[in-house]
Design a protein that fits this description.
Blueprint: H1 8-13, E1 19-28, H2 37-50, E2 54-74, E3 77-94, H3 98-106, E4 111-118, H4 121-125, H5 130-134, H6 144-150, E5 154-158, E6 161-166, E7 169-172
Antiparallel strand pairs: 1-3, 1-4, 2-3, 5-6, 6-7
Length: 173
């Protein structure tokens, strides 16, 4: 993407001045003291509001182990991080404000990584709270072959589609 153009999706779906809903997800460096993480979030929200954005909801960052190490160039050398504080902020803003917000957030030295995504209407209505989901009990995987075999039907699984066969013919589930 060039510095002077907006992605085609943004141009086609947002009219001049129309507010669009976005989510800024971010990792704060684990070297930041826990008591200072709130000031980083305040700085991010300030960036959003200074670019015509309105913060609508947020999930406060909490520290957790990353799925893989992230390398960031800091203080003259590459450093690996295996944990970070993760949080997100949802906001509405004109589509033209997203790129300046993205660049300003990228300039915050205590941010390990960030991402801004445009929200669908369903995502706007039902925010996903990451830290709450981590506290839920794990979901058990179910072997579809075993479930159908217990009910006495034959099953053939192809391309993640279960097809059962009975006296009347074939049904897709």
């Amino acid at each position: 993407m060039s510095e002077t153009t907006m992605p085609a999706v943004e141009v086609s779906q947002a009219h001049e001045g129309e507010l669009v809903s976005y989510e800024l997800a971010f990792h704060v460096l684990p070297t930041v003291a826990e008591g200072e993480v709130g000031s980083i979030v305040a700085q991010l929200k300030s960036i959003i509001t200074s670019h015509e954005g309105v913060v609508t909801t947020e999930e406060a960052p909490e520290r957790f182990e990353l799925a893989y190490d992230i390398v960031k160039y800091l203080e003259g050398r590459n450093r690996k991080f295996s944990s970070a504080y993760f949080g997100w902020v949802r906001f509405t803003a004109p589509a033209a404000s997203v790129e300046p917000i993205n660049q300003a957030v990228g300039g915050v030295k205590d941010i390990l990584r960030h991402l801004i995504v445009k929200l669908s209407k369903a995502e706007e209505a039902h925010p996903f709270y990451f830290h709450e989901a981590l506290d839920l009990p794990p979901v058990q995987a179910v072997d579809l072959d075993e479930v159908v075999a217990e009910e006495g039907e034959e099953v053939e699984v192809t391309d993640d589609v279960a097809v059962t066969e009975d006296e009347s013919g074939v049904e897709a589930k």
